[in-house]
Amino acid sequence: MKLQINRDLLAEAVSFAVKLLPQRTTLPILGGILLEAVGSDLNLASFDYEVSSQTAVAADVETEGSVLVSGRLLNDIAAKLPADEVTLSVEDNKLLVTSGSARFELFTMPLEEYPNLPQIEAWSGEVDAERFSDAISQVAVAASRDDVTPVITGVEIEVADGELTFLATDRYRVAVRGIDWNNTAQLTETALVPARTLSEVAKTFAHEGTVKIALVKNDDREIVGFSANRRTVTSLLIKGNYPPVRRLFPETVENSAVVNTAELIEAVRRVQVVLERDSPLRFTFNLDGVTLEALGSDQAQASEHVEAFLTGDDVVLSLKPQFLIDGLASTRSEFAKLGFTKTDNPHKPGPVLITGQTSKNDVDPARFRYLLQPNLLLR
């Protein structure tokens, strides 16, 4: 194999291909990146049996061929090459990388031991890339980071005729967002995708126009695929039954308060400075607005008042600051509406439903909802 390629194209392609590789693997070969020179392209791919990344970039190919080398090492090298043009060639079981006066030699790995890459034969539909990315970033923040219960470390994608719905929960909160999509395969299905993988896909494809999506479920494996602009990512689906979180959302909420999103976020960030780790803030909503209080610390206390427009009864509750900030920020709206539900126990308020508002009175049309459970956080 021998070819010349633009340094920036190479660096960007290698970075994409290795981004989702695990930091550590029990099999070194799964940390490899597969380079294949064919025609006028350099194809790059990585695969660790769970997630695969594949891309192709233009190159001046002199000799076609394939080689497998360390992905992380090639990524570090490609990011620091000195000249605009790079030559890649294979000699004596080594990949030679030359750029200007710099020369690197990477020992190759046995191609025959590398697993076959997943292939998507047919795509189920496509979605606007920006809306897709935005929806995932809104929802994935609520996914659990505790691997003890793998099923809630994922984002569930509900595929319907003209809508994709994303759901995530960590038991303390639930986030849901629906977006339109072109369901060319007329698919009705659900897929549970690791939140980390989905978040990386969303960031990578955010400005690519449209993203193609495929669900492949057969006897061998169940995978989801995403593709845009000659880049493809596949991921194994998480197995298990996702909790029925949709039923937790109330149909109507009579008691609510509308706040300026940025003002409340900044107030929460200021007041929580004196809190001990994982301690909640106390919020009192009344006709005068909302008062935030950080109590219970031996070293300091704090309080602040923010304007709020209350409908219904006064409300007092405790909320975990970062969870509230996540929900408010995810509305992407100038104003946010906090809906207060009730339980049979007057000392345990029900979940708080957070949605976006384009103004004090007008609901944001985006289909985003965030449910935060205060009674689990009371101290």
Output the strand order for the largest sheet: 14-11-12-13-26-25-24-18-22
Strand content: 35-45%
- By CATH, the architecture of the largest domain is named Roll
Supply the CATH class of the largest domain: Alpha Beta
Helix fraction, binned, reads 10-25%
Mean pLDDT: 93
- The CATH homologous superfamily name of the largest domain equals DNA Polymerase III, subunit A, domain 2
Q: Residue ranges: pLDDT <50 for 5 or more in a row?
A: none
Structural class: alpha+beta
Computed Rg: 25 Å
Describe this structure in words.
- By secondary structure, the chain is of the alpha+beta class.
- It folds into three domains: 2-113, DNA Polymerase III, Chain A, domain 2 (Roll), CATH 3.10.150.10; 125-246, DNA Polymerase III, subunit A, domain 2 (DNA Polymerase III, Chain A, domain 2), CATH 3.10.150.10; 250-372, DNA Polymerase III, subunit A, domain 2 (DNA Polymerase III, Chain A, domain 2, Roll).
- The protein has six helices and 26 strands.
- Strand 11 and strand 12 form a beta hairpin.
- Helix 1 (7-18) runs antiparallel to helix 2 (71-78), helix 3 runs antiparallel to helix 4 and helix 5 (261-271) packs antiparallel against helix 6.
- It is elongated and about 75 Å long.
